[in-house]
Design brief:
With about 325 residues, the protein is an alpha/beta fold. It is about 40% helix and about 10% strand.
Length: about 325
């Protein structure tokens, strides 16, 4: 948490501002008194381009409702273009509190709701808010939220931004196989998507045709992450055959870890043949494999075994400055 002196100093610094390019509260905890004082200071500020409110009250669940109400009052009608509320226990009840925040800032282009415990009810609330607003997203991230069957309504909200959406990340949302088709159909209509991440959601054979449509129709697609989607060896080769000859010129990276592949060599060979621009393939399996030969010289292929992958994760050094990286990424976004 930030002590009273530093809060006062912060409020003093912004009190005369008319426009703020980036305002970040990430990684700290704030009292209700701070929000009350912030509200009076912020009242004259007309525009905040980038607002980062991630990880600010994960340990204060008893006051999250009142904090979200204050946040909505303070930051409504501020012409926000980037909004990050990630890593907060917003939950469905809190989603209702931020509906007006979303609707009053139709300028939002980049929305981050990662790990905020939406669940199905919260997913529906956010989807309805997006559908009833004038927001047209360029980036939408909502990972690890267990949205389940609310993805059906969220898919409609995603499709609403079909003319603007460039990045979609809905990793690990407990989307069952009977609902993933709604998401895939919406994605296939968002023709400007460059990055798609639907990892760790269930898929089924009936959706392979729709997955093929996604890959074939998104001509700007450069990064596709479909790890851990229960895609069988047969279905993996099926969607590649479907897109062969359909001209997918820009795909550079494919992440296909933890699917049910048997002929890994054949699959990777097919990828290199079908996607001429591909430079990176991740396809972790249950054994260590190594590619040799001229066909693989220009492609970074990771075929690490599950065991080796876990060892690598454990050996990574701690202490990475995540907030600093977050701010750099937010500052680098195109908001025009």
């Amino acid at each position: 948490s930030i002590d009273h002196f530093h809060c006062k100093d912060f409020l003093e610094q912004i009190k005369d501002a008319d426009h703020i390019d980036l305002l970040s509260f990430s990684g700290n905890s704030y009292s209700n008194t701070f929000f009350e004082e912030l509200e009076s200071v912020m009242s004259h500020i007309k525009r905040i381009d980038r607002l980062v409110l991630s990880d600010i009250f994960t340990t204060r669940k008893d006051t999250i409702g009142s904090a979200l109400k204050a946040i909505t009052r303070i930051f409504s009608n501020k012409a926000i273009k980037v909004l990050d509320l990630s890593s907060n226990a917003i939950c469905p009840s809190g989603c209702q509190e931020i509906v007006d925040l979303l609707k009053s800032n139709p300028e939002i282009k980049h929305l981050y709701l990662n790990h905020v415990a939406l669940s199905e009810d919260g997913g529906n609330i956010i989807a309805e808010a997006l559908l009833s607003s004038e927001i047209r997203l360029v980036t939408f991230q909502a990972i690890k939220n267990r949205m389940g069957n609310s993805i059906r309504l969220m898919a409609k909200a995603i499709e609403k931004s079909k003319d603007t959406l460039r990045e979609l990340v809905v990793y690990q949302n407990n989307v069952k196989e009977e609902y993933i088709s709604d998401l895939l159909i919406a994605i296939a209509k968002c023709y400007h998507l460059a990055e798609v991440d639907i990892r760790d959601n269930e898929n089924k054979r009936e959706n392979i045709e729709v997955l093929s449509q996604v890959v074939a129709s998104l001509k700007d697609l450069t990064v596709l992450k479909i790890d851990d989607c229960n895609i069988t060896d047969k279905d993996s080769f099926a969607w590649i055959r479907n897109v062969k000859g359909m001209d997918q010129p820009k795909l550079k990276e494919l992440y296909y870890n933890y699917n049910d592949l048997e002929d890994v060599f054949g699959f990777v060979n097919s990828l290199i043949e079908v996607f001429p621009s591909i430079v990176k393939i991740e396809c972790k399996t249950d054994e260590d494999l190594e590619f040799t030969g001229s066909a693989f010289q220009s492609v970074d292929v990771l075929l690490q075994s599950f065991e080796e992958s876990e060892k690598e994760e454990e050996s990574r050094p701690e202490g990475k400055d995540e907030i600093s990286d977050l701010i750099k990424n937010i500052q680098g976004l195109d908001i025009n």
